[in-house]
Amino acid sequence: MTSHDDRYSTDHYDTGHYDTGHYDTGHYDTDHYDTDPYGTDRYDAALDRAVKHAREWLASLPTRPVPPRVTADRLASRLGGELPADPIAPEQVVELLAAEVEPGLMAMGSGRFFGWVIGGAMPAALAADWLTSAWDQNAAMRYATPGTAAVEEAAGRWLLDLLGLPGEADVGFVTGATMANFAALAAARQQVLTDAGWDLDRLGLSGAPRVRVLVGRERHETVDLALRYLGLGAPIPVAADEQGRIRVDALEESLAGGDGPAIVCLQAGNLHSGAFDPFPEAIAVARRYGAWVHVDGAFGLWAGATPRLRHLVDGCEAADSWATDAHKTLNVPYDCGVVIVARTRASRRALGVHASYLVSSDEAADPMQKVPELSRRARGVPVWAALRSLGRTGVAALVERLAANARALAEGIAAVDGATVLNDVVFTQVCAAFGDDGRTRAVTGRLIADGTVWMSGSRWRDRDVLRISVSNWSTDERDVAVAVEAVRRAAAGVP
């Protein structure tokens, strides 16, 4: 491997002015159309342009620098301002949009993108997402949209089977893990207050028994956010071990130290270490105190899809609810979170709605009874497409490949002078430091400025770290080698 791969050079990018003046954005003259100006053929030109630009974007991902080239403020001045008085042709809108927005796009679909926990979009899932937009179904009711309802139900059954979760559970498709946590914890709130004799639907939260929510000290902040949305306040943090796993002895002590309704939130995949909570022991303790158990498995729940990694989630099937993201490990387009609730009556009571103008199905629960939305796109369609494209063995291979790439990155970075890998790399997360906090920040900044790869800085266990999330289906050995070399180059440039 050479010290620098010319494929990823940022030198040829001009981050200053970019000219879109060659696009004609003049008046929208309908006279040249021989057919009805509102006919379906009017989609053709705009869709053709969109396909062209989509192909160009996807083709650029293997070689383009990862970071965006301009700031949002600069783009806002060109995309905003006063709304023009006159219309323009749809295809001109597409041309203008593609030209103006492209410099501000981050190559999140690149195999060299390791920031946050963001996957790419696999071909079948992307194409299915385009169809979903073209079909334009409001996927709330089985009666109104049986096609998309059937697809989502099939995808839900496949997910339960792949992840080893109860086959009778409800599966709902939401925007992301935040709303998946919200939906699951809404069901939990409903159930534990009902068990305590409180009628939440009639009386609300005012005067209700205090619901204790116990979480590991290193949970993801979206759990706290969901609790805030639900009016449950701040959770009770429970001590975690050196890898971020909840300590079962501390959980029991905390549960024993109070009374009343309780919810325990566990974690499949720590944000920094990728570690998994000890599910059998923690769930057994929670059950002794009558607590609802929820598992936040935004990316880690997918370990259950392969026999080689299933031991990481052993026992989590005994929980009451789970949250995950399909746009992370499964690599479907944004946005697609998944909420899974075994105690379906609580979920449907907390989230469902009944009105005279809504035609409910007599055969099975409507999608609107499983998620906190009435109007939503059929997010489960790309999930079905990804699963059908991969099959059981393909999903397992995808998850195993992500974990193997994480181990390879960790091994490569550990060999860089001055670098230390801080976590046990059990899944797809790697955290590294380069000496003291100042040097780690400098190496991270230099790495991001280089543009070859994207790895985000963070802070874990009271020190600054370089955090690496391996989530993209297209990441290969060459991407891993290029990434390690980029880290080596960045570290060498910081004394």
CATH architecture of the domain at 124-386: 3-Layer(aba) Sandwich
Shape summary: globular
Largest sheet: 7 strands, mixed
Output the helix-strand order.
HHHHHEHHEHEHEHEEEHHEEHEEH
Give the CATH topology of the domain at 124-386. Answer: Aspartate Aminotransferase, domain 2
Oligomeric state as shown: single chain
Radius of gyration from CA coordinates: 24 Å
Helix content: 25-40%
Q: How would you sum up this structure, described in words?
A:
- The protein has a domain at 124-386: Type I PLP-dependent aspartate aminotransferase-like (Major domain) (Aspartate Aminotransferase, domain 2, 3-Layer(aba) Sandwich), CATH 3.40.640.
- It is globular.
- By secondary structure, the chain is an alpha/beta fold.
- Helix content is 39%, strand content 11%.
- The chain is built from 14 helices and eleven strands.
- A seven-stranded mixed sheet has the order 1-7-6-5-4-2-3, with helices on both faces. A four-stranded antiparallel sheet has the order 8-9-11-10.
- It has helices at 43-60, 72-79, 90-101, 123-135, 146-163, 177-195, 200-203, 221-229, 248-256, 279-288, 344-351, 380-414, 437-450, 477-492, and strands at 170-174, 212-216, 236-238, 262-267, 292-296, 321-325, 337-341, 420-421, 429-433, 456-460, 463-469.
- Strand 10 and strand 11 (463-469) form a beta hairpin.
- Keywords: Aminotransferase, Decarboxylase, Lyase, Pyridoxal phosphate, Transferase.
- Belongs to the group II decarboxylase family.
- Residues 1-26 are annotated as: Disordered.
